[in-house]
């Protein structure tokens, strides 16, 4: 008798623990999903709406609607099915993309009848204990044919991993080809990576993106070939406690025309020390206005735009209060075809002292812009200086470098004041 009672008790305890594990897994999943959607709406360029939701201990389902923050060109409905385990929740779904009717007509007029695109499929594992995510997405390839061209697209794959507040997205666009009477364009593969970190409510975030297009080749019908290799792009957006800072870079390993090298190079540019509080207030105000207009800024009349600018003007000035600067940390350009090889660097600083004391009326007066111009100090150095550029700028023959400066808004070229620019 005692053994039967113990066995029954063990079954109850194990079964209760099993059910409780599923219930906890389901509750954590729902909490994390709701928080993630809220954060996406707070800090992204999307409008997010949860259309339906059914929660259970073993299974959950629902649908989310995504639309751009600006405009109504498209929307996506993302249905999902979740199976809750004690340690992991497996979520699967697709994405149904629909375009605005006016945009569809424009595309049909330009490209002909639109094809039926394959439905993207995605799957994600949410780990209950660590509260981390591993997800993948696949879009199958397709062919799009018109009367005088054909597009062969080989598909997209992507992965997303991390935890709330720290996510890494990696993706690859497979090579694709566009064939027409004029020639053939081949691109890819293209790789992308994004690292996104954010705090609750979106007030602080840091996003780093990179993209690399391995090859872009156009072969003209007559046989001439233009080939770009190693085309890269990077960006960095950091909204911290004090500053909003932006950076971007472009690079090209080599451009060739037939077998002749044409150009290579790149640059890195950064905008630093924008006031973070002012930037966030401007963003919140713009987002509120977009929500009020359902994303359609074209509804605003000129008078309403003027009123908005007047309302934003104090924060636009406050954005400059910490003396922001634009930094060109590296410029590298090399072209054998043009006989050009030069490197450069420089920076431009805006003196923000007392800027918030200015009024719109002061700056709107004749000569009011001089107050902003005198706050500019900067420099740009290029060396060696291409002879063609030296000739265009009116510099003496044999000049081996260019030094352009702004001193309290007044331009100098190689230490000589510039009354008016040569061009």
How far apart lie the N and C ends? 103 Å
Mean pLDDT: 83
DSSP summary, beta strand count? 22
The number of helical segments is: 7
Order of helices and strands: HEEEEEHEEEEEEEEEEEHHEEHHEHEEE
Q: Tell me roughly what share of residues is in helical segments.
A: 10-25%
Low-confidence stretches: 3-22
As laid out across the biggest beta sheet, the strand order is 8-9-12-13-11-10
The largest sheet is: 6 strands, antiparallel, barrel
Instruction: Specify the overall morphology.
Output: globular
**Pairing-aware structural class of the strands and helices?**
alpha+beta
Radius of gyration: 28 Å
Strand content: over 45%
Word description of this protein:
The chain has 423 residues and is an alpha+beta fold. Helix content is 24%, strand content 49%. The chain contains seven helices and 22 strands. It has helices spanning 2-43, 101-111, 276-292, 302-318, 360-364, 369-373, 387-392, and strands spanning 46-54, 59-68, 74-84, 88-94, 96-99, 121-127, 132-145, 149-163, 166-173, 176-180, 183-187, 190-198, 205-220, 225-239, 243-257, 260-275, 325-335, 340-350, 376-383, 402-407, 410-413, 416-417. It has a six-stranded antiparallel barrel with strand order 8-9-12-13-11-10. Strand 20 and strand 21 form a beta hairpin. Helix 3 (276-292) runs antiparallel to helix 4. The radius of gyration is 28 Å and the shape is globular. It starts with a helix and ends in a 6-residue tail after the last strand. 9% of the residues are buried.
